[in-house]
Amino acid sequence: MKAVTWQGPRNVSVETVPDPVLQQSNDAIIEVSSAAICGSDLHLYEVLGPFMTAGDIIGHESMGRVVEAGSESHLSTGDRVVVPFQIACGDCFYCRKGLQTQCETTQVTEQRSGSQLFGYSQLYGAVPGGQAEYLRVPHADYGPIKVGEELEDHRYLFLSDVLPTAWQAVAYTHCEAGDSVAVVGLGPIGQFAARIAKHLGMTVYAMDPVAERREMAARHGVHVFDSGDESVSAIREATSGRGPDAVIDAVGMEAHGDAQSALAKFAQRSVQFLPDKVGQPVMAKAGVDRLAALYTSIDLVRRGGTISLSGVYGGQASPLPMLTLFDKQIQVTMGQANVRNWVDGIIPLVEDHSDPLGIDDFVTHRMPLEKAPEAYSMFQKKEDGCIKVVLNP
Question: Which of 317, 334, 351 is the last residue of a domain?
């Protein structure tokens, strides 16, 4: 089969690799019909090279049809399914608590990480990903989400990651209708976090330096601003001088905008040139993130407010302004999205023909699998108005 493979920092290629096969009785094999490129994939593309091996199959947002079902998979050939990005058993202590990203059955204990993720480095199990013609799905008796036949792929595809991640980001703000929320970063997660907050009755402000991203969010009733101190001041002024009740950081470890982020970017890129045996412990113990988005969130949120982190962070030595966090009595919530915990509440909105979350106004580029290298480069460089790419094998 053809699959998108990691070959080095900022270097992916489409290669012919062996077809996946059933390994356990609760496995399933799906023929992938759509696979998206996620902002988190860019961390593999740019930062997490020490935890990657040349030839790794990447991608964790995929859907398709079952072509082979294990005897205990609870699936049948022909079922149309969306595959959550994390692999969870559904029956352990953490799964029963709705924390599928901490699944005890699939935890990557040798890396001291949570549950296995599709296509996401040794840190999360080095499981082959879904930007491919076929995908083996472990624990298929729990993970895959069966969907209907009427709607096109793009209406369901984002149940794999983007929609649950954005929904959790808003839920973790603990805000209600009438409250104010600011979103820092209007990439895929930020777009839907802003729309979901607006759908739930909140007043939503958002910041992003890319005009096309601001224009997309504005179409959905979001008050948009460029990045920078003037925008922080404008949002604070619009919220009675206090700042919003919550801020969602939808950017993460590769933020731009301050001296610390520039230094961290240099450090992140330097690690890529170290041998893996050296680079891995450096990243695991001394890695630093680019924190411009988080610093902005801390500055912007009102006293006693909440910062919800949905952007991925990976540094173990990132400096935080603890005095400010403590003095402002800021609550900080975070974590990978627990997909199965949220999808039942999201599916009715996905299937609503009025499209309340504007899913039809989200995908900016559809490309064949063979064009993945060009797609990654375009997405990383934010060229051609690229906000969300869907690959079709």
Answer: 334
